[in-house]
Amino acid sequence: MHMDVAARRGDCIASRKCGIECRSAPPELSVGRVFRKKFLQYMNDSETEHPVRRELKKAMYHWVLRWQRIDNACNSIKELSANCWGNYIFCDGNENMNPKAGYISVLGSILEESRADLRLNSEVSSINYATEVVVKNGSLFRPDGCTLPVIVKCRDGREFEAEHVMVTPSIGYLKAHPNLFSPPLPQGLQKAITSTGFGTIDKIFLEYEQPWWPEDCEGIQIVWTKDIPDFDKVVQRSQLVDGTVEEMKQFWVRAISGFDPVFNQKAMLCGWIGGAEAEYMEKLSEREVGEACTQLLRRFLGRSDIPNPKRVFRSQWATDPFFRGSYCYHSLGCECLKEDKEENHLNTPVCAGMSDGHKVPVLVLAGEANSKCYYSTVHGALQSGMKQISHYIQSTTRSQWATDPFFRGSYCYHSLGCECLKEDKEENHLNTPVCAGMSDGQKVPVLVLAGEANSKCYYSTVHGALQSGNETNFPLHPKVPQVHQTGISLWAASVGMTPAVSVLCCHSIIVDATHEQGDLQIFTFHIHINTVWLLY
Question: Do 8 and 60 share a domain, yes or no?
Answer without folding.
Answer: yes
